[in-house]
C-alpha cells in the first residue's frame, strides 16, 4: 500500500471516529435493518487495491461457482437491487477468467471497477463500518479413544436435535433464525447447553463421539467451527461443522479480563490462563458459553456454510439474514504484522492498513447483525497467532455485476 493509500485509509478511519463521537454526543441511534433490502446503499467505487495475490481470489470464486449454479433461482438482494444467483455466477465466472489472464494487477482491478457496482453494508455506528475479527483452522492432537490427556469428545449431531423454523408459524417471525430444540414429553424445549453436555454428560451412551481431544482444544475448535485432528501416528481427520445447539454464543474473554490484565485479551492470553487452571475452575469458565457445536468427518478441510472449502485470507463469515451468501466484497481493515526482537522472541503485533477482495461464504455463531464480519486467516499455529489478535474497525463494501 503506497503513501497516498495509507493517507486515504487513515482519513477514512478518522471519519469513523468522528462519526461515532458525533453520534454519541447527539444520542442518535440507527434503526436495525429488517433484511438485505435495507442493509445496503449504492456508492461510487472506492480506491481498489489488494494486498494478496489475486490468484487466491480466483480460487475462492471457482470453489463456489457450483454452489451458485446449483441454487441458481435463489435471489441475492443488495438494497434495491435483486438478481438471481445464476446471473451473479456468470459475472463471477467471467471475473475468474480475467484474474487468470497474464495481465497486470492494475488491468484486473480496472476490469472490476468497470463491470461491478458497489454497495456499502449497513454496518454498526455508520454505513460501511464493521468490527472485523478472524478465525482459522486449528490442527490439534487427538485420539480415537479417551485418554487422560484427550478427555473430551467432539460429538456428531444427535438425532433428537430439532430445527424449528419460526417463520412457518407467523409472518411476524419471517426474519428470525430457526430455533434449535428437543422434545420433552409433549413439549418442545431448548436443547442441552454446553454445561449439560460436557458437565452433566447428557449425551453419553449414544455413540456420538467422533474423536477425543484436550478439553481446551475442543472448546476453541467449537469457536472456529472446523479443524484437523492429528493422531499420534501422523494420520489426520478433518472435522467440520454439522449443527449447533442454538444457544447464544458468549465470549468467555469478558469473564477473564481482570485476570489477564494488563495484557490484552486475545486467544493466546485466554488459552494461557485456562491452562493454568484446575479442571473444575477451567470448566466453570468454559461453561459460561452455552453455545455448543456438533461435527462430522469430511475429506475436505475447513468447509464453509456453503459446503465449499474456505480460502485463506479470502473467505468471510457474516449474518445470512442481511448479507447474501456467495457474494463478492471488498474490505479495508488493519492487519497484524509480527516482528521478532533482538532475542528472536515474537513481539506484540504492529497493525498496518490493508485492503482486499473477499467472498462471503460462511456464517458463525458469534457473527450476528450488520456490524460483524469474520475473516478466515488460514490453517495452523501461524494463522492462529494472527487470527487471535484481530479485532478492529473495518469498512465493508459488496460488489454487484452491472
Written account of the structure:
This protein has 402 residues and is an alpha+beta fold. The chain folds into two domains: 3-135 and 305-401, Barwin-like endoglucanases (Beta Barrel), CATH 2.40.40.10; 141-298, Barwin-like endoglucanases (Ribosomal Protein L25, Chain P). It has helices at residues 3-26, 54-70, 85-99, 105-115, 194-199, 215-224, 253-260, 267-274, 279-286, 380-387, and strands at residues 40-43, 75-78, 81-84, 116-121, 129-137, 139-143, 152-155, 162-164, 179-184, 187-190, 209-213, 226-230, 236-244, 293-298, 315-317, 328-337, 350-362, 372-379, 391-401. The strands form four sheets. Strands 5-18-15-17-16-19 form a six-stranded mixed beta barrel, surrounded by five helices. It has a six-stranded mixed β-sheet with strand order 7-11-6-12-13-14, with helices on one face. Strand 2 and strand 3 form a beta hairpin. The longest helix has 24 residues, at 3-26.
